Structures are given as structure tokens and as C-alpha cells.
Amino acid sequence: MLKLLKLLGDGRFHSGQDLGAALGVSRSAVWKQLQHLEAELNLPIHKVRGRGYQLAKPLSLLEESAIVEHSQGEHWPALIFDCIDSTNAQALRAIAEGQVAPFLVLAERQTAGRGRRGRQWASPFAENLYYSLVLRIDGGMRQLEGLSLVVGLAVLRALQSFGVAEVGLKWPNDILVNNQKIAGILLELVGDPADVCHVVLGIGINVNMQATSEVDQQWTSMGRETGVVIDRNQLVARLNKSLQGYLGQHRQAGFGGLQHEWEQAHVWQGRPVSLIAGVNKIDGVVLGIDAQGALRLAVDGVEKSFSGGELSLRLRDDS
Ligand code: BTN
To answer: For residue 96, with 0-12 CB atoms within 10 Å meaning exposed, 13-18 middle and 19 or more buried, which class applies?
Structure first.
């Protein structure tokens, strides 16, 4: 089915006969595969008598060779899937099977994309980026401090390099454009964080998605913001480069060296917020973050720090 998609990816018309000849199957087998593409991957296909078949929108798929072509320096080996439950879940399986880190897991589609706090991550075929980078950490806890915030900065800079304006970070690791989510980050860890462990840096970016009924919060995409179709292979290359730079700085100097840069990108700096922890809610004003990446809030005039993966921030109604 993927071979058929690649043939149609140029956005031109192809006759059933040509497609059948290229795939070595009959015209009726081509017809069946086309129906499958439409139904399963939600890809509209124009069928015009005498001309053949054309994808309603041109499509470019993820390819390691194209990522390498766009990369200027070192690149990470990539395992690319057409469809997977979750790139983070696949990354964890690959670690268990002994795959040597660093490596990337990418997918065109996820059937069980994981978000923070048990949420689903909408993952339609070939529209967005579902990216998991696996790192081996052997430097103890210091290498983990503030790591998810560092990944946020790297994603932010990659988005800005494509012309996405007004993009900022929301503690701990949401990436927003005018309060609409454009990307999210989910870190998962296996092993002993005090000794040797592996961390999966899961990144979801809304790239060319224009519509979906699967997201229950305000969202946007790079395509919506810039008005152009983004080349996802180029995005992977830029994201790799951005991550290599920020992860290198973090390894050398710890999170403290990036604390100020992160605060400058924080969209809710100085704003009155509620911090939600399960059923508990703490009201305060955002002071910033500390050298470990914990959130600093003024609560009833007293500074308090908060950290933990299950926390989330909301703007207060009175703000
Ligand atoms: C969030 O809730 O903001 C985090 C979303 C993280 C989604 C990405 S998509 C790639 C990777 N694989 C997953 O299953 N989740 C992360």
C-alpha cells in the first residue's frame, strides 16, 4: 500500500493501468488498494474517467535518505514506521531488545499516541510529526534535571526556524501559539536514574494538520500558522540539529545555563495561574523556574517550588 502511496505522492494523475504495471498487480487490485487508502488512512483520492487517480493533496512521506540530505552534521539512525501504536512505546520495546542508543523512532501514524496525564495524542497519517529520540544517560540525576524543558526549547527554536511566529513555552513542556497547542513532549524513562538509564524524548508536532475532530483542546499547526506545507523530513533534520545543540549545552553546564533562556520563552511568566495536581489546585503567580526546572510560584506572597510530571498549569479566570 505504501508503494502505491509513493507513486501517487507527486499529486499528479496516474492511470490504473500504469499503477498496476508499476506494482505488478491487476487494475482491480489497484482499485482495492485505493479504497483501502481512502478508508483506512482517511486520504481523499480523485477518480476521473480517462485520467486515472490523484491524491487530493500531494503527500511526502518520511524517508531516512531525505532526512540525511537535509542534515548538515551528525544524524541519528531512524526506525521509521508506517503505522505503530506509539513511537514512545516502540522506543521502549527497542531498548528492551538491546537497540543501541542514540536512535530515533518515527511514524507516519500512531494508533495509540500517548500524551501527558494519560491523554491520547491525535496522530493522523502523514500530516504531523511523531518523533521519539532515545538517549542513554549514565551521568546520574544531573543529566535528567530540567531535561524535558530543554527539549521544549529545542522544539521551540526548530518551529521558529520555519517562520512560526508568537510561539512560546508553557511549563512544564507545552509549546503554544497564542494559547493554542502546536506541540507536546512526553518523556519516559527506564532503568536506574541514579546510575544508567534510557530516556525516551517523545515529541509530537502538529505540522500540516488543518482539521481534526480528535483534539479536545485549542490547537494549531505549523501549516496553519505559516500558510505553507512543511516538509517533514526537513523538520526532522532541523529538530535533530536543534536537539543536538541544546542537549550538548545541557550535558556540559546542566539546566542552570538554560534557565534564563527558558524563562524568556515562558508565555505565562508573571501571570496568575492555578497549578493542578489531580484534584488539588494551588493558586499563585508565576515567578519563573529554578535551576532544576521546577516551577516557582508566589503563593499567598510566599515563594514555593513545584515539580512532577502530573502537574499542569491553567491561567486563572481573574487574570
Ligand atoms: C502532551 O500531552 O503534550 C505530550 C504529547 C506527546 C506526543 C508524542 S507523539 C510522539 C511520541 N509518541 C507518543 O506516543 N507520544 C509522543
So the answer is: exposed
Ligand 1 atom closest to residue 117's alpha carbon, by position in its atom list: 2
Residue with CA closest to ligand 1 atom 2: 115
Q: Which helix (H) or strand (E) holds 253?
A: helix 232-253
235 touches ligand 1 (CB under 6 Å): no
Q: What's the predicted TM-score (pTM) here?
A: 0.92
Supply the CATH number for residue 283's domain: 2.30.30.100
| Shared-domain flag, residues 225 and 83 | yes
Instruction: Give the count of alpha carbons within 13 A of 33, CB side only.
Output: 20
Q: Report how far residue 18's alpha carbon sits from residue 2's, in angstroms, rounded to the nearest whole number.
A: 16
On whether both 92 and 231 belong to a single domain, the answer is yes
pLDDT in tens, the chain (319 residues): 778 888 888 888 999 999 999 999 999 999 999 988 888 887 888 989 889 999 887 788 999 999 999 998 778 999 999 999 999 999 999 999 999 999 999 999 999 999 998 899 999 999 999 999 999 999 778 889 999 999 999 999 999 999 999 999 999 999 999 999 999 999 999 998 888 999 999 999 999 988 877 877 899 999 999 999 999 999 999 999 999 999 999 999 999 999 999 999 999 999 999 999 888 899 999 999 999 999 999 999 999 999 987 888 999 865 5
Whether ligand 1 lies within 6 angstroms of the CB of 241 is answered as no
How many domains does the structure of the chain reveal? 3
Cα 146 to ligand 1 centre (Å): 18
Q: Is 169 left (phi over 0), alpha (psi -120 to 50) or beta?
A: beta
18 and 111 inside one domain: no
What's the domain range around 242? 64-263
Residue to mutate (ligand 1; options 203, 207, 221, 312; most atoms within 8 A of CB): 203
Ligand 1 pocket, 184 CB below 6 A? yes
Q: 107 CB under 6 A from ligand 1?
A: no
Catalytic site residues? 116, 181, 314
Inter-helix orientation angle 16-23/27-41, to 10°? 90
